[in-house]
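Methods: example folding runs. The two proteins below were folded one after another, and each record is reproduced exactly as written to the output file, sequence line first and structure-token line second.
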Amino acid sequence: MESLIFVIPITSILIGLYFITLGLWELREGINRKQYIKYMFTGLFLLVILTPMIWLFGSSFLFRM
């Protein structure tokens, strides 16, 4: 159970980087700007907002159990 504290944020970081890479590739091709915006904001949300929240709140919830 304690290993989830490390696995879930790392997975979130990897998925966020994947979405950012997809967004940059979409911008490079220049076909669909809405798709670029969707990929970039999803990736940035995962990296900047969700991952620190998992680190901060997830570890305190698991230690209460």
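Second run, written to the same file directly after the first:
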Amino acid sequence: MPKVSDLFFKTAVVWFILGIGAGLQMAISGDHGSFPAHAHINLLGWVTSAIFGGYYALNPAKAERKIAMIHYGLYNVGLVIMLPALYLMLHEGYTALEPVVAAGSLMVAAAVLIFALVVFSSAGVRSASALSAATR
């Protein structure tokens, strides 16, 4: 498995554990005010990271490109900035953290655009004719 796939999958599991923890905290306390943060942790952290890992596993030539690791790093730095700030903003009422959430969100958005560039680029993709020629 390509390194970036392995990293995305491992990081996804960490986000999944954190998302479950946030859900348990809400259930135990009876305070569900931070449910949007819980949803973001699970969807952006767990699910989307696992999807990125799957894409790179299915496209190893693209996974070996430097831009794939840039995507991984920027996406996860953005999540690490955004998600705890969002949780504290919603759970504790620290509205002053809104610019931090915005900064992390912009980093995540930039990483998604990088992923789109990876997906739509033809670099690292072998044409069908090249594949059939290689198997002869």
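Comment on the second run: Residues 3-29 form the longest helix (27 residues).
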